[in-house]
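for the writeup, i need someone to sanity check this before i put it in the appendix. the sequnce is what the collaborator sent (i think, or maybe the updated version? ugh). structure was predicted straight from it, no edits. if anything looks off just tell me and ill rerun, i have time this weekend
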Amino acid sequence: MEKVTGLQLPRPRFELVDVDALATAYRSFVRRQMERDTAGLDLTRWEQAKLVGQPQAAELMVRHGRLSKKPVLIATSIGQPSTLIVPEALGLQKLRETPDLLCDLLVRSLAQQAQVLAGGGQIVPPPEWPESPTAKHPIVQLSEGHAQWTSSQATGQITGSTRPSRRPLAKRLARSVLAPMADRRVARASALVDQAVSARGLTAFNAVWSTPGLAPTLDDFRRPGRWIGRMPPP
C-alpha cells in the first residue's frame, strides 16, 4: 500500500467495540476536535452553547443513526488514527466468507489512517467547527474517494486476483452495509484522485493531507481541472 499511495502507513489500529463504546469514544473525539478548533476564539453565547452540546449530539447520532453501521475513523489528541468497528453492524460473518470484500474494507481503512498520519490529524478527520462534517463535506469526500482509489489499486494485488475486480466488488458493496462508500459522490472523488495523481504525481497530490487550504472545494469536484491546476508541480 505504501507503494500505491506514497504515504507512510501507521501501525494499524482497529478497535472492535459495541455501540455504547463507539458512542462514548466518538463523543470524546468530537469534544477534542471542537476544543482544538475553537482555541483562542471569542465565542458568542450561542456558540458556547453549541460547543457544549455538540459532543452529546454526536453521541446520540451514533446511538440512533447510521454511524455505527460502518467503520468510524477518529484521531487521538496527538493526531494518531484509529478505526472503530461494531462487528454486529458490519456482519463480520459475511465478510469472512468474502475475502476480497474484507480486504477492501481493511485497505480503505488503512488508507484513511495513513491520511491522518500524514497530516497529524489536522486535515483528516475534518474540523468539527464551525460546522460538523457530513457525507457532503469536501474533506470527507476526498478522504473516502482516496480510500476507494487505493483499494482499486491495491486490493487485487493483495488478494492475488488476476482479473479486474472493480465492477463485481462495487456490486457486492451496493448490496452490503458499505453501500454509502460506493455512492456517486465517492466515485466522483475517486476519479478526481486518479486524475490528480496522473497529472501531478503522488508526492504533489499527497501534499493535500498536510497543507491547509489545498484541499478541493465542493465546486472543485465538478471542475477537477481547476483544482489540479492549483496543486504543487510534480
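The longest strand covers residues 81-85. Residues 162-182 have pLDDT under 50 and may be disordered.
thx in advance!!
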